[in-house]
Amino acid sequence: MESFETIENEALPEVGAPENPKPEVSAVLERELAESDDEKFIALWRERQKELQKEVQANPEMRFNLPEKYAYRIITIMRQKLVEKFGGKNLEGIDWQGAVDFVREAGLPEAPFIIVDRENEKSDFLKITENIKGYPFEAVSIEESNTEAGKLRPEISNEECGGVYGSGLGMAVVFRRSTDEPIEIEKNLVHELTHGGRVEYSARGRFADNGVIIEGDDLGILMEEGIAGLMEYAFYEKKRGETKKACLAEMFHCDYFDSNNILSIEGQDGGFMPLPLKYLTYVNGNFSYSFSSCSGFIMELIFEAISGFKEKMIEARSMPDGVKIISRILDEYSPGLYSELRQPKCEVVDFAEKLAVVIKKTKGSMEELVAERNKNNDALRTFWEDKFNEEEADLHINIDNAKVHLDNYNNFGKTECLETAASCIAKAGAIMKFPYKFAEKYQEEYKIIKEKIDFYQARQPLTKQSSSAS
Ligand SMILES: [Zn+2]
Q1: Whether residues 291 and 417 fall in one domain
Q2: pLDDT per residue as tens digits for the range 59-102
Q3: What is the distance in A from the centroid of ligand 1 to the CA of 207?
């Protein structure tokens, strides 16, 4: 294989520009900090931090060059306190050793972890992490909430969040409720421990918050979540795979399922998600998925398409310039793929959109993906054939309806007609979000109608304004 390091990629900024100004710490403060005990140190540092924030706001580049030794001391103190309070607790019934081994066996470094009882230990957790909120974590990103470390505190209040990897802290934190099944906790632990395999500081002192996949803020979060999602669901599959397969076999009246079979599961935006069985969780007869399912499947498709990329990516997560290596490989495979994956938000709807893009780029179409993954399963093949037919019929009807309502709008000028046309075309668009082969023949017509609707809709507020003014 060609050496990726030799290919220049000018589009990306240099990492950790060393010529940027570095904020000073006065000699007096320096001495005081060195001599103070932990509590005093934190108090002094918090004072200094306020000043630092002002300096950083005036010169954002400065955040990459903040004095690190104090950051490390704060981190060390915090980590110690967290381990003292929560270490070794809340492990009853949890196969945490299995989770730790699973991550280690994948060749990833071992990160420390704690499990926090969300119902009874929330206030203790918030109290200890009070100082984590500030420097050096705010320094990672001006928009603190966008970083994993900055999320450490708010996420315990977010019921949806099963855990977080504090990248500045270098520790995985998993939240537990009395209603959680052990497998949920174990799966989340594998996920967060996987994040521990990324680097926290680049060689030149710049935070690489979500590993090297990040350039700037969290632009590479989809890929980082992809690796974590892949690991999380591989562990889940190992433990629950057989139960899921048995349940499906009963549902579909057939005797064979495998982890790669593609199922259609109801999507959170009202559509559906095509996901392999292994990315689904199963509780009390219900299958569900998360953003990690989408990102995990995305990375699986990419790893499958580009040989050697998985190993390269794991290696690159600990290299200061790793993001460049990754982007070059992706763009060589398919121009623009890296930019497509620079997804800043960790949201299931956004990840689902990216999944559609990656299916198109790696498999060509939904039909090809489904045929390949379901070739051993007649029941699923029939299921998907029906599904494709249904979706095509739906697409056809919605485009036709949009056309009729648009004509009505043109003939009678009723706003309701335009609104109905817009909602029909949106439904058609939602179907076409996935790269269906059958959708190709509707592409042109869809585009023309949509443009017209958009045009009239853009004019609509003006008409309203002029009528209200008269
Ligand atoms: Zn994650």
Answers
A1: no
A2: 766 655 555 556 667 777 888 889 999 999 999 999 999 999 99
A3: 18
| 248 CA distance to ligand 1 middle (Å) | 28
* Residues 331 and 393 occupy one common structural domain: no
Residue 216 lies in a domain: no
Q: pLDDT at position 126, please? A: 85
Q: Give distance in angstroms: CA of 405 to centre of ligand 1.
A: 44
Distance CA 135, CA 153 (A): 14
Q: What integer pLDDT is reported at residue 136 of this predicted model?
A: 44
Say how many domains are in the chain: 3
**How many whole angstroms from 228 Cα to the centroid of ligand 1?**
6
Residues 164 and 184 in one domain: yes
Q: What are the residues whose beta carbons fall under 8 Å from the beta carbon of 125, sequence distance 6 or more?
A: 82, 85, 86, 116, 156
Q: Whose CA is closest to 447, among 436, 432, 435?
A: 432
CA of 192 to the centre of ligand 1 (A): 6
Cα angle vertex 373, ends 372, 377, to 5°?
A: 105
| In a shared domain, residues 98 and 161 | yes
Using the mean position of ligand 1's atoms as its centre, give its distance from the Cα of residue 456 in Å: 42
Listed residues 373, 391, 409: the one ending a domain? 373
Q: Are strands 113-117 and 171-176 parallel, antiparallel or unpaired?
A: parallel
94 & 165 share domain: yes
Low-confidence ranges of the chain (pLDDT < 70): 1-25, 49, 52-53, 56, 60-72, 131-154, 167-168, 198-220, 269, 320-321, 343-344, 461-470
- Residue 5 belongs to a domain: no
Which of 373, 407, 435 represents a domain boundary (last residue)?
Answer: 373
Cα(86)–Cα(102) distance, rounded to whole angstroms? 22
User: What is the extent of the structural domain holding 131?
Assistant: 23-209
Residue 314's contacts (CB-CB under 8 Å, 6 or more residues apart) are 107, 108, 197, 227
* Whether the Cβ atoms of residue 434 and residue 366 lie closer than 8 Å to each other: yes
Task: Identify the pLDDT of residue 470.
Answer: 38
Quote the pLDDT of residue 465: 43
| CA separation for the pair 71, 140 (Å, rounded) | 12
Same domain for 332 and 412: no
Domain membership flag for residue 271: yes
Cα 297 to middle of ligand 1, angstroms = 14
Ligand 1 center–CA 225 separation, angstroms: 5
Q: Is residue 150 part of a domain?
A: yes
Residue 60 is predicted with a pLDDT of: 63
**58 plus 111 within the same structural domain:** yes
Residues 410 and 359 in one domain: no
Q: How far is the CA of 80 from the centre of ligand 1 (A)?
A: 23
61 alpha carbon to ligand 1 midpoint, in Å? 27
